[in-house]
Design a protein that fits this description.
With about 400 residues, the protein is an alpha+beta fold. It contains eight helices and 15 strands.
Amino acid sequence: MSDLQIGLLVIGVAIVAVVLLFNWIQERRFRKQADAAFQTPAGDALMQSGTVPRETHSRPERLEPALREPVFADGDGVRDVAEFNEPHVRIDADLPRADAALEDDLPMRAAPAAPVPPPSAQARPSSAPVAALPAPYDELIEYRVRVGGDGVLANVFADAFNHARTLGKAVRWAGLPAGAAEWEEVQPWRDVHYQQVAVTMQLADRNGAAQEEQLSALCALLQNVGQTHGLRVACDDVADAMERAQAIDRFCVDVDVLIGLNVVARGEGAVNLARIVHEAEACGMVLGMDGVFQLLDSRGEPLYALCNHDAEPFNAAVVEGQISQGVTLQFDVPRVPDGLRVFDGMVAFGRKLASEVGGILVDDNLRPLTDSGIEKIRTQLTQIYERMEARGVPSGSRRALRLFS
């Protein structure tokens, strides 16, 4: 071995030793800070008198599955209820449930309070309790894990944050910064100290109800973080959450329906796609990357969609004279606010399309849709929307968009 190789080897060993020493010093310093913080803990919702460790809880009496109202309210005192497949004219409760979105805006709300600057690494945050609203948690559709600490840095949740994305259900992270009264979305890459963190998993979506393994995995994930960093962790009861998950999933299956109206040519002819595209654009519909036209509301959410019967989807450059066997208008019932009005608008647009191309508005059996047939669908829609309102899931609300995504 040459002198150069020996020198490089020595330098490498020295660098590794320095890194290990630095990590040991940092870990020792943070551990001392955590121990000092927990010697005289301030009042914390997770450690109030009378609270016992989760392992020693006796299981509460089980209740029949029931849908409940959320436990938090808007700033104005109003409860927050928030926060397509073949052509047919039937209300089908057995549609496949698509993948749920992994992200959703946290409905953060705050009580009036003076802003508090984030603590620096040298200045420990005050342990004095600060009045704060409960974490943004929707009891109807979410399972919750609460984490209590004393100025714990957001980056201790980085690995858990990434792992939670693989659990198969939407997970939300809300944190209460030290000395503040306003909850915010936790972002592990930010230099923020939190005194409380609430992590929630959605109990149902179009893939079905959450499984016990998913809820337990989230609880275990946060418990591991708590053990590593000296944090207080409290998981909601899994059995109760499973009952709620099954109840909300059964309800969703009953009202998760799609309505389709078809425009086809009379006789053995075909419809003119160029005219249909012109009418869709004139109506304000937008062509998506999937080749489907959509009429969007002010939030950017689809009200109804227009797709081609043929295998080839719509494209931006429709050739004059291009024809198709027909087109379908689709209406995703639980995701649309003011659904009856939107349905009436879709029917009117379908009749206009049929008139423009010399076609006819029909059902999936190619039977013409009469006024009485349309009224029958409206009656069914009215019943669905009444059920959704009664269960606290108004169509098109943030909560509905989360459940039916």
